[in-house]
What does this fold into?
Amino acid sequence: MTAPRERKAGEVADHVEGVLEGDPDVVVRAVAGIEEAGPGDLTFLAHPRYRAALDETRASVILVPPDVPCPAALTAVRVADPYGALQRVLGWFDPGFPGVAPGVHRTAVVDPSAELGPDAAVGPHAVVEAGARLGARTCVGVGGYIGEAAELGEDCYLYPHAYVGRRCVLGDRVVLQPAAVIGSDGFGYAFVDGRYRRIPQIGIVVIGDDVEIGANACIDRATLGVTRIGRGTKIDNLVQVAHNVAIAEDSALAAQSGVAGSTRIGKHVRLGGQAGLAGHIRVGDGVQVGAQAGVIGDVPPGVTVSGYPARPHHEAMRAEAALRRLPDLARRVRALEKGRRDGSGEAP
Amino acid sequence: MTAPRERKAGEVADHVEGVLEGDPDVVVRAVAGIEEAGPGDLTFLAHPRYRAALDETRASVILVPPDVPCPAALTAVRVADPYGALQRVLGWFDPGFPGVAPGVHRTAVVDPSAELGPDAAVGPHAVVEAGARLGARTCVGVGGYIGEAAELGEDCYLYPHAYVGRRCVLGDRVVLQPAAVIGSDGFGYAFVDGRYRRIPQIGIVVIGDDVEIGANACIDRATLGVTRIGRGTKIDNLVQVAHNVAIAEDSALAAQSGVAGSTRIGKHVRLGGQAGLAGHIRVGDGVQVGAQAGVIGDVPPGVTVSGYPARPHHEAMRAEAALRRLPDLARRVRALEKGRRDGSGEAP
Amino acid sequence: MTAPRERKAGEVADHVEGVLEGDPDVVVRAVAGIEEAGPGDLTFLAHPRYRAALDETRASVILVPPDVPCPAALTAVRVADPYGALQRVLGWFDPGFPGVAPGVHRTAVVDPSAELGPDAAVGPHAVVEAGARLGARTCVGVGGYIGEAAELGEDCYLYPHAYVGRRCVLGDRVVLQPAAVIGSDGFGYAFVDGRYRRIPQIGIVVIGDDVEIGANACIDRATLGVTRIGRGTKIDNLVQVAHNVAIAEDSALAAQSGVAGSTRIGKHVRLGGQAGLAGHIRVGDGVQVGAQAGVIGDVPPGVTVSGYPARPHHEAMRAEAALRRLPDLARRVRALEKGRRDGSGEAP
It folds into this structure.
């Protein structure tokens, strides 16, 4: 953990290719949210919700969109995408992943047949089983578990208590948050004579480069073949990905969402929090699934769906609006019926 | 674990400030549910669902509301709130948290720079990183992880496999159930040129006194600043609390509920199981959110909401009732249309 | 892990009691999904979704229902239930659970008063507390935790990081996936004077024979008495089972479903993914609950329910269909009202 360096507003503007309004020599030493920031802090305005906080922030410098008026005392760096700019600036102040000393901790248990790349690190109480391979600089945190013949690429970082099951494969720069589970057995049973019989789950999980998996998330191994998470895809905490699911590149699954068995998800797909996808369906590239939506059939590329059962978002919104007016509609139908019973064709 | 002591019905009545009906010298040695209780057991009736079991219970003594008739053989202690009375009585029989010997277990790994208060306990295979501090009598269970410079107050109890990340702060008497995760990285990415770039999550989690966090629940650290859980708030198993969320005092989040980033929750709020709150919203004091509800906008104090999208409960119930009658309503509209086509203004 | 043996198509047909169409001497060396299979692989067709893949599969042998036409080059084994047949065949190729050496690993911490049956295994960094008992051949994987006086039957297999709390009881052949939590404290508080007071959770969990519990799933101990999971019931990843729930035999709970406190579930019940059951209700034998359904009242035996609040599936589907036509219905009511205002009884 290296101490964050001081930066000047002018350096910030150069780094994010923004337009500076104010004193280029103002110094920032840290980054903070708009409501918590104080003198010496750099802050940002990304969500319109916080525009009201702009007049009261005590920050020294702010990343802000071009069209938002700023108080005169605040040095502004104007950029089209303040959140993206924040990402670039935060690297300066990021202490990085908690360090784990390269090599094998004296309390770790590593099978002699396991292969560790240069500067790979195995932390306290971690276990690496026979035939497993860790790429260069890959780090298995405290209490981590790497199963038999599992393969991890280079520069992976596994937070404490992560689990990678037998024969599963991780690409380069994969990050597992605490207690993420890769390669649990899929939920597969044959129901025979009134009882469930276990279907052996003999497939694996293959995770691409630059994937991140959240805390306590579960990725089940395939019954046969592969459960696949494509390069760059990000999976949040407590997400369930069932056996034989395939997710393409650069998708994002928000917390507590779930994907049932054998479903295929395209690239650039987003699942909202607590959304659920049925098994054996196909969700096209660029699809966006609303929070808590339940998708029970195929979704063509580029569509935004919501509700249960999920349908195109504008339809769901129309139905929702109609539902809110439904008690009123029922009252109007009663009025029409009454008019008819009264033998009257006229308006009341 | 100390053996529960024997108590007499009269002592029970005194302890809970209840009114005794029956023999004050009946002895109870344990507490049991109304259907499982036997002779020598104290039981209780809190939920009306179990009133029918009253005539058949074999318990010796029962905590029961004033207005409920009891069989003559049963010694009754009448109290307005039997569940609250149960809480007071159970302390007599509670074996307490599983013991962990004070000091550092020989298999634990504690950095020399960590500070342990008097009678703090670090269990087998637990790890305490550099600069962490544990208050007096705080107990880190088997396989627990305390990150660099984390601070735990006094009398905290961490069940096995709990995780407290770097620089996170816990107050006094905080309880973490097994494998609770405090301080995982928030789910923050900037989407640039079709790929997600990681936003460093350099904030922390601050948890107030008397908070309890459920098994496998996740509380993400803030991007910047603090994710905050207020004093006395209780969080159930498998709950997700995202980065920069703030929850005030004495709220309760039931199992599998989730709160998206930067949302603020007041005090005395209750979330039902599997409820979800969108990001960047404000939920006022005393709000109650129904199970599985999806809240997508601000909720003023004191309101009870349900459904998706969540709305005031009575509105949701009206819409729900109307929805159930919708097929009938459609039939009636068809009848009206038919009547009109037939040129008839009369009732059928 | 033993190498899978070679098998001939004729052996496959005999083993699953199927009808062979093609060459009985074709050799299979592995099992694979229909789209991934190559020469030497056995595959299967269970879900109609994949029927189109039949013409293109490169598998050597296929398990297939009687009525599905097969390409001539493919040797077919016809069976009524291909998925059940797959289960029987996979046993040949199943490497079994990852091995843990019998006895106590040198890094494990086992209390001298714990009792281990013949060939029981306690893996690296596992902990077994005082008075706990493990049956013959039961295996506690890496980092597992067995609490004080807990009892595990014979032939149980606990994947790494599983947790079994104090005094909980597991039958024979129970499987816990990674980080499953059995016996966390129930979420029980008395709300007194504006604050939650902890109700001690002094009951236990009792799990029957042949139960399997998913990764990161949580089964809470009872407040008093027992939380019970019946023989043969299968519970998927990230499922929540609250205190004092009772689930009978041979039921299945899909991923991320949740059951609130004291609810009773019959045998042969199925919960879909993300389904939720309210507390204190009874769900009869053979009930099927749709994915994401929210059950708020008792459900009689044999009924299929869906939606929120859950109702019989055909009603939910009717309401859903009516909801989709609701904007149209509103338009038609407006037309009727207009007709009436125009003083016209005629059709437009």
Notes: Residues 103-314 of chain B form a domain with the UDP N-Acetylglucosamine Acyltransferase; domain 1 fold (CATH 2.160.10.10).
